[in-house]
Amino acid sequence: xxxxxxxxxxxxxxxxxxxxxxxxxxGSSMWTANAYxxxxxxxxxxxxxxxxxxxxxxxxxxxxxxxxxxxxxxxAFITLTVIKSMDSLGPAKAVMLIVISQIIVxxxxxxxxxxxxxxxxxxxxxxxxxxVAIIGVVVFKWK
Length: 143
Hints:
Blueprint: H1 2-26, H2 30-52, H3 58-61, H4 71-89, H5 91-112, H6 124-141
């Protein structure tokens, strides 16, 4: 049950962050805002690490497979694409499309067992759920 609430909080924070980052970009530039966002997140993580964790950073270098080290690089492009989509579509439409994309890609990852995720069997229920979400975007956008 705690995972459910954490996921809801994550979605809310992502939506608010997207609006904040879009406004930040309006007052500066895309890459300046993105750099500030990533740098401020870095400092928060370092402070949290100092108080909560203290695991050696050497352990990260030993992680296998190496492609999982690209998460931070993806984070910069996630920030960029969220800012751009919210700026052009508005927060509600952008977030709806982002979430639908996340659902579809996550299902494909599960379905094919990509990136070390446990492979899941095909489910029409999940496909129908994604289709209903897509229809929801069409209805939401319909004037």
